[in-house]
Amino acid sequence: MSTHPHAPGAAAPRRSLVWLTVATAAALAVLIALGTWQVERLHWKQALIARVEERLASPPQPLPAPETWADLTAEEVEYRPVSFTGRYDHSREIHVFIALTQPKGPLRGQGYFVMTPAMLADGRWVFVNRGFVPLDRKDASTRPESQIPGDVTIAGLMRPAEEPSWLSPKPDVSRNVWFVRDPARMAVAAGLDPARVAPFTVDAFAADLPGGLPQGGETVITFSNNHLQYVVTWYGLAAALAVVYVALARKLLRRG
């Protein structure tokens, strides 16, 4: 005996189909939104890589005017080639821990980036990453020949201040070991007025320094770009969910 479409036995499959449709629509909305977000991130990352490649191929320009420093964005600063004249104060070195795995020079492994403040003609300061030194050369007294006096021309890449993450260890100021390049905090530790210190740093290009240290030109320029993979994943899951929904819906309709 067949079941009438409006008989009580047909209600259960219809209710199941309604709930299945609602749940599938919600899940599809989330998956498609995630895929679309990754498309936007892919375009942003591609534009970032193109902008950085263009900057890296450009000749150094003068430092931005000090009155503009406070308004500079990270995008305006990142990897911008600059050249300026300054006078290093080697007594105020800041040491930022780094594990250098893909060096451009001969030294690699654990060590420090040497951040030395350079005083400009107007009395303002810019922290310059002069380069890498191994753990046993952290103390400036082990490389006195590299403590260049007087005015020097400094060329390198601008870098924005780094924001610590919840995983970032706190700096050990007493041992002068840092993990994040924060010019304002480094200024305080070095006894400088943060208001007169640039809110960015400069990674010096490789230079033929006496003694070979610090090993300059070690700016880490890497961009992970897995967004296309994520786009395919999220949209693929959405397509698979749609196929499963159609199969289940057909089965429920046959039962109803």
Describe this structure in words.
The chain is α+β, with helices and mostly antiparallel strands and 256 residues long. It has 2 domains: 73 residues; 133 residues. It has 4 helices and 7 strands. A hairpin with an 8-residue loop joins strand 3 and strand 4. The radius of gyration is 29 Å and the shape is elongated. The mean pLDDT is 85.
Task: For this entry, give a set of tags.
4 helices; five-stranded mixed barrel; alpha+beta; 7 strands; 256 residues
Q: Enumerate the strands of the largest sheet in spatial order, edge to edge or round the barrel.
A: 2-4-5-7-6
Strand percentage, roughly? 15-25%
Total strands: the figure is 7
* Domain module tally: 2
Radius of gyration: 29 Å
The main pleated sheet reads as: 5 strands, mixed, barrel
Residue-averaged pLDDT, rounded?
85
The percent range for helix content is: 25-40%
| Helical run tally | 4
Regions with little confidence, pLDDT below 50 for 5+ residues: none
Provide the succession of SSEs: HEHEEEEEHEH
Distance separating the two termini: 14 Å
Structural class assignment: alpha+beta
Give the overall silhouette. elongated
